[in-house]
């Protein structure tokens, strides 16, 4: 645990750093190269100071001085096929089972703003691309020759405000880049929106409860961008499959052609209340 004094120091450093960056951005007379270099130096200094005040530990097991230890990192890529959500999508894949260290890592990234985890989590999703490309190849042969759209499962407005970002974005970009290396024409398309909700996404447990809670709440923002496009739906965690099912329903209704669902992790069958 970090004492209250340490947190005050962290807040002070963060405030100073943000203020300094604001000044640098407003120096219109300074060259772009100088501003970029100055910001990089400030970022490095701030990172070093934060590491001294709140030493880094493995997000999976707590081992000191590592973002992820080798053991926990290896657990992130244990690909598994997930039972299909039973609506429009016949293929669902996850990078690893959602349990133990993998669960702690994803929660640290998703709910506790551990943004450095963007890189290793993006890498494991990218590593899934060759497997995915091979599996969807037969499906693509019967689809129109249009770009594949990578569509993130939407977050509620409450979650977006809390996180201050679309947390899946770096994961999507890693996946798209890897699929492009497989020779596919792919782009990210944030096509889905979700109405606000008061309960936490993963902790509202139970297949029936989740299905009722999500029914009719996921919609397509602009159907004209989706017509006849093959679609990959991406979420952070597949629990009961309810989110993926609602996403697929909305996408198909808008004229898209759902191909597969992907996730960083999936809850093992029989443990959907995790």
UniProtKB/TrEMBL annotation:
InterPro entries given in the database record: ComF/GntX_DNA_util-trans, PRTase-like, PRTase_dom
Family annotation (SUPFAM superfamilies): PRTase-like
Residue span, Phosphoribosyltransferase domain: 199-261
Gene3D superfamilies: 3.40.50.2020
PANTHER family in the cross-refs: DNA UTILIZATION PROTEIN YHGH (PTHR47505:SF1)
Family according to the record: Belongs to the ComF/GntX family.
Protein name: ComF family protein
């Amino acid at each position: 645990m970090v004492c209250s004094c340490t947190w005050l120091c962290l807040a002070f450093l963060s405030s100073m750093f943000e203020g300094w960056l604001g000044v640098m951005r407003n120096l219109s007379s300074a060259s772009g190269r100088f501003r970029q270099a100055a910001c990089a130096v400030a970022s490095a200094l701030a990172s070093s100071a934060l590491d001294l005040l709140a030493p880094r530990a493995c997000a999976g097991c707590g081992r000191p001085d590592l973002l992820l230890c080798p053991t926990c990192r290896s657990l992130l890529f244990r690909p598994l096929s997930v039972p299909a959500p039973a609506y429009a999508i016949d293929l669902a894949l996850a990078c690893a089972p959602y349990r133990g260290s993998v669960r702690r890592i994803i929660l640290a990234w998703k709910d506790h703003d551990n943004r450095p985890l963007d890189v290793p989590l993006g890498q494991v999703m990218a590593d899934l691309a060759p497997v995915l490309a091979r599996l969807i190849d037969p499906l693509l042969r019967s689809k129109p020759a249009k770009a594949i759209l990578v569509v993130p499962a939407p977050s509620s407005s409450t979650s977006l405000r809390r996180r201050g970002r679309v947390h899946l974005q770096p994961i999507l970009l890693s996946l798209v880049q890897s699929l492009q290396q497989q020779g596919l024409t792919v782009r990210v398309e944030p096509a889905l929106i979700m109405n606000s909700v008061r309960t936490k996404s993963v902790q509202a447990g139970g297949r029936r409860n989740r299905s009722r809670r999500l029914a009719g709440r996921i919609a397509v923002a602009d159907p004209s961008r989706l017509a006849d496009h093959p679609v990959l739906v991406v979420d952070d965690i597949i629990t009961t499959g309810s989110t993926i099912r609602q996403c697929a329903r909305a996408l198909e209704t808008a004229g898209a052609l759902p191909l597969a669902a992907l996730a960083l992790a999936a809850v093992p069958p029989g443990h959907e209340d995790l």
